[in-house]
Every structure is written in C-alpha cells, then in structure tokens.
Design a protein that fits this description.
The protein is mainly α and 439 residues long. Helices cover 51% and strands 5% of the residues. The N and C termini lie far apart (104 Å). The relative contact order is 0.05.
Length: 439
C-alpha cells in the first residue's frame, strides 16, 4: 500500500469528502471492509528500513491530489499495514452498511466518499459497540473494589504445586490418591525414594486405578491392616490389570492352594501376583524336581516361604550346593532340612557357614543331630555362642542324647532367656547377664 497517503477532507456542510487513493489501495480497502469512520480517524504507517527498524508516521491531510500512476510506481503496497484496530471483530451494523460506502471514481481516477455516508457510519460506531468490534478498551474490575462475602467465597485460588519436587508432601493435599493411600497406612516416604514411583502414584486416579485393586485384594482375603504394608512394598500392583490378577489367582487355586493360603502368600510376598502364570508354573516345577518333593510338600513349602516364587534362584542353588559339598549332608538330610526350615534356602551363605562351623566343630554336634534339629541353622550366631559358653562355664554343655543331662539343640536356641536359665542352665537370669558382660 502507499507509503504516502494524501487526503483532502472538507467539512460535511461544505461538500463531499474527497480522499485520493490509488487503484491498488482502493482494492485492499474494499477487501478488508474497514469502516469508513475508522479509515477517516487514524492511519499508521509502518515501513521496513535497511536497519530493520520500524518507523511510524502519521498521515497529514493534503488538498493536493497526486496522480494514481505516480503513487503506484513509487511505493509498494506490501510495505505498510493499518494497525490499531482488530479487523476480525467488526460489528454487524458496519458490515451491513458496507454497500453504502462504495467508493466513486472521478475523472482523475481519484476515490471519493460521500460525507453523509461517513457521518452516518461514524454515528453507528459508538462506544456501546466497542466490545462487539473487539477493541482493546475492555473494562476490568479494579483490584481495590470491594466485593461482598458471597463473591469472596466463590473465588477459587489455584494451588501452587511445584512442577518438580523431590518429595510427595506438596501433592498429598491436592491428590485424592495420595491422601487415601496415607489413610490406608502406606509409607510415602519410602516410596518417594524409589525411582519413578512418586510420579507414577501422582498420575493414578483413585476411583479408576486404585480402588478396584484394593477391593480385589480385600476380596482375595488380605486383611485391611496389611494393605498399607503390601502397597508400600509393591506399589506396582496398582498398575496391574485386573484380568491378569484374576488369572494368576485362578492358577494358584487350580494347584489346590486354598483361598486362605493364597491370601497368606500374597501378604508375605507382595510381588507374587506381579508374575505371569507361566513363571509361577515353572517355579513350582523347578522346586518339585530339584528337591524331589511331592505336590503336597511343594505346596506346603511355597505356603511357608512364598518368596521362593518371586526371588532369584541363584542363592537357592548356591545354598543347596553348600549343604551338600561343604557341610557334607546327604540328599535325604537336605530334603528334611529344607522342608522343616525353608529359610535355609535363602539364608546368607556366610552366616550359614559360620553357624555350621561353630555347631559342628566347636560344639561337636554330628550331622545327624543337626539335620534332626535344623532350627539351629536359622538361629542367631551370637545367641548360640553365648548360651554354649555359659553352659560350658557351668559344666552343663552336654549335647549327646545317650549321656545324662542331655540338652537338645532346639531348646538351646528356641527358648527365651528366662526359661533357658531356669530350665536348662539351672541358673538365674542375673548370672547369665553378668556372664555376657565378660565376653
């Protein structure tokens, strides 16, 4: 559009208003359908310079008419655009009267507008229609304006939640899922220390994601006080589909595990239901073939220690080799030890070796008695050592069944201190405590 716009405007009582525009400018004005009053009021010139600065120039009226060909040749139409108005929001009344604002050409190829039409159009564009036109004059309430109490109660202030946080504390009050889990007894401080668990819990919906899984566990037989501990240990059960959970429970029931047994297994091993049916079937077959157990004894072993179905098989294989090669137990003795004390399969190798060495080499107890009372392999080494030395100090360290004053291994490690002192050592608890101070 032209960089220089010359307009010669006369008062309405003196005659028609004449505005001189080139042909290209007339075409652009007709396409944009800009109200004549807005065209008459302000024209802002934007011109691109070589140093990329924008220069604004107000158009000054001029009574001198310029030829059309000079304007079109000297100035480019794409170098400026009208600003200061919203062209997309025009009132319906202005659009209706656009037909009356048709420019007329004179014999010198100049565009003229009738002053009566311009006056009528300017009167229609009033302040009341400013909102419809979409101008920037939007009335906003003052921040110092007093409001009533009812309006103040309806004001909702969005919570300022941090986009990134190292703790779940800021989200508990705003998240229904987290607040319900806290009421259930879930330790969020433990879960937020695990990678990606905190963000997973924040994204869960309580009614669609959490509540159906909790009802499933409760219907399964898991006691309500244990739900918090279960989710604390295994929060990923909240993301498992209900179809998979039901299929895994159905498989365990098909292997003749009772409903109470399945509930107890899930409580002891929270990750049990996260494994597929194929993996559960492979684990049951592995222990049954490796230990040579019947189906009933295998089920009893899994009920007592369901972590065997979830954990790694490496410590199990290693402890079985240790019992056979290093300790020297026979196959039937190992089978009896495992079925009596299943925790031997998952015990620490160093601890297991230390206990066996002290019981067998220091106390002089043979393999047969250790296999008969395998609870000693699951006891604390410090307790075994203190009680044996106390009995040896009293002269009552007798572990042979054929000798008088025989003391069995189960009574040595199972009985509490009071009963051990009164029934086995035949001494007082104060004497035993004084002896422990000398060690």
């Amino acid at each position: 559009m032209c960089n220089i716009l010359s307009a010669s405007i006369k008062n309405s009582h003196e005659g028609p208003v004449v505005m001189h525009l080139c042909q290209r400018c007339v075409f652009v004005f007709r396409c944009l359908r800009i109200p004549a009053s807005l065209q008459q009021s302000t024209c802002i010139l934007h011109q691109r310079s070589h140093d990329s600065r924008i220069t604004a120039a107000l158009l000054q009226p001029s009574h001198k008419q310029l030829p059309v060909h000079n304007l079109s040749q000297k100035y480019n139409i794409e170098t400026w655009r009208p600003c200061g108005m919203h062209l997309r929001a025009l009132s319906s009344s202005v659009q209706k009267n656009n037909s009356d604002l048709t420019p007329k050409k004179d014999e010198n190829h100049c565009v003229t507008y009738d002053s009566s039409v311009l006056h009528q159009e300017s009167s229609q564009v009033s302040l009341s229609n400013t909102h419809n036109i979409g101008l920037d004059a939007v009335v906003r309430p003052s921040p110092f304006q007093e409001i009533c109490e009812e309006e103040a109660l309806r004001i909702q202030v969005p919570s300022a939640l941090p986009p990134v946080s190292f703790t779940l504390r800021p989200y508990v009050d705003q998240s229904e899922t987290l607040s319900k889990l806290v009421q259930l007894g879930v330790d969020l401080w433990k879960l937020e220390q695990r990678p990606n668990v905190g963000s997973m819990l924040v994204k869960l919906d309580f009614h669609s994601d959490v509540a159906p899984r909790l009802l499933f566990l409760k219907d399964l037989g898991v006691e309500e006080p244990k739900l918090g501990s279960l989710i604390t240990k295994n929060p990923f059960i909240l993301t498992e589909s209900l179809e998979n959970l039901e299929a895994r429970v159905a498989y365990l029931r098909s292997k003749k595990f009772s409903a109470q047994s399945v509930a107890a297994m899930v409580s002891k091993a929270p990750y049990l239901l996260n494994f597929s049916v194929k993996r559960l079937d492979n684990r049951l077959g592995f222990f049954q073939q490796l230990l040579g157990l019947s189906s009933e004894k295998t089920q009893n072993l899994m009920i007592r220690l369901p972590k065997l179905l979830c954990g790694s098989l490496e410590p199990v294989k290693e402890n079985l080799k240790v019992c056979e090669l290093e300790f020297g137990f026979r196959e039937n003795e190992i089978r009896h030890i495992v079925t009596t004390v299943p925790k031997v399969l998952l015990a620490n190798k160093r601890k297991l070796t230390q206990i066996f060495d002290f019981v067998h080499n220091t106390m002089g107890i043979p393999h047969s008695l250790i296999a008969k009372f395998p609870q000693v392999l699951n006891a604390k080494f410090l307790r075994i050592r203190e009680r044996h030395l106390f009995l040896k100090y009293l002269g009552r360290a007798q572990y042979q069944p054929s000798q008088p004053s025989y003391i069995s291994l189960d009574r040595l490690v199972i009985l509490p201190d009071e009963i051990f002192c009164s029934d086995v050592a035949l001494a007082t608890l104060e004497d035993f405590e004084q002896f422990q101070k000398t060690l």
